[in-house]
Give the backbone structure.
Amino acid sequence: MAVIPVDIAGRPYEVHVGAGLLPQLVEHCRGRLRKRAVPIVTDANVHTAWGEVVETALRADGHEPHWRILPPGEQTKSWDELAATVNWLLALEVERGDHVIALGGGVIGDLTGFCAAILKRGCHFIQIPTTLLAQVDSSVGGKTAINTPAGKNLVGAFHQPSLVLADLAVLETLPQRELLSGYAEVVKYGLLGDADFFDWCAANGAAMLAGDAALREYAVAHSVAAKARVVAEDEFERTGARALLNLGHTFGHALEAETGFSNTLLHGEAVALGMVLAARYSARKELMPPASAERVAEHVSAMGLPASLVGLHLGCDGKALATHMLHDKKMDAGTLPFVLMRGIGQAFLDRQVDMADIAAFLDEELSRAG
Ligand SMILES: NC(=O)c1ccc[n+]([C@@H]2O[C@H](COP(=O)([O-])OP(=O)(O)OC[C@H]3O[C@@H](n4cnc5c(N)ncnc54)[C@H](O)[C@@H]3O)[C@@H](O)[C@H]2O)c1
Ligand SMILES: O=C(O)C(=O)C[C@@H](O)[C@H](O)[C@H](O)COP(=O)(O)O
Ligand SMILES: [Zn+2]
């Protein structure tokens, strides 16, 4: 098992990465579960696949699990589910010193983390991520949120978990499409600051996704360590360091909003396409060599992730997509900083991007052949 520290001033925590952690869940929690009752928020798919393992582990140690089982999918990151889950926690008389467990993917982690952030002005929570995406990204770093009709993650809080347990065994039941979606956020760490890791992805990504245990452990632990370094440097996204984790997301979130946060485009799929668009836009502005941008597109496409806007049949123009971006949280006094690239592993924040130019670029991409 790998233990990765997240060194946030005053509130450090650990990410445990390994296969078969769930049966030893209470041991990993080391006294954090201080009452008999343990609140667990999850979704129906995860509960079906892993609920019994968690239930058995908790009961073996004298705990009584209280389950809140939510509908799977992005729509669950909503005001309605937030209010209902907070009311459920209040009815359970959860106190500030108690821990709520989030057992699931990024949707459950983001919603439960936000509930924990606002319950009695903040209680503890433990992330048990069950998707590749949640293990490499969303369970670490403390961004929590819900979506609103105006856009993605527009209401939320920074609230760090006190422990993250990434059990690689749970990935056995994850559908292939979801696994691939999570892979996009793995590749992101290579593209934003680690060209060697991008090369590793190009060489090992397929075998990792096919199930190689050692490669999976390396991919998750390396990604978590990369994220932990960024979050320790810029927890609240103030200096620009953390904004680089948004590579591909300005385009990606606009695509998610345009497709109604539906199953048409999963978050990781939108990010994969968003990273290709960021690379191509960087090449168009002569910031990045065109061959490097095409290498990004080729890898994304070779892995089976979307690399072109054409196949999405969006029925909107570039301006409509650019309009979604104006709700982005990076928006600053009327300008939207974009994460662009000078090369693979060399992302930077460009504060001079012209939105009309982005719309024109997107129009070209919407009609691009192949
Ligand atoms: N907070 C952050 O820093 C951060 C980072 C990245 C993404 N996100 C957010 O995460 C969300 C996406 O998360 P996700 O990709 O994990 O999606 P998800 O939570 O919707 O889970 C994907 C699907 O897989 C199912 N599932 C989960 N684990 C399973 C398992 N082990 N076996 C079988 N089925 C399983 C779920 O029921 C769901 O249907 C988005 O809302 C995104 O905005 C947040
Ligand atoms: O942790 C971060 O910081 C990230 O940007 C990680 C992203 O993968 C994640 O999707 C995040 O929720 C996007 O951030 P947002 O602030 O644009 O909502
Ligand atoms: Zn993301």
User: Anything to note?
Assistant: The pocket of zinc ion (ligand 3) is lined by residues 137, 185, 249, 267, 271 (CB under 6 Å). The two ends are 43 Å apart (CA to CA). The chain has two domains: 2-173, 177-366. Residues 24 and 57 are 7 Å apart (CA to CA).
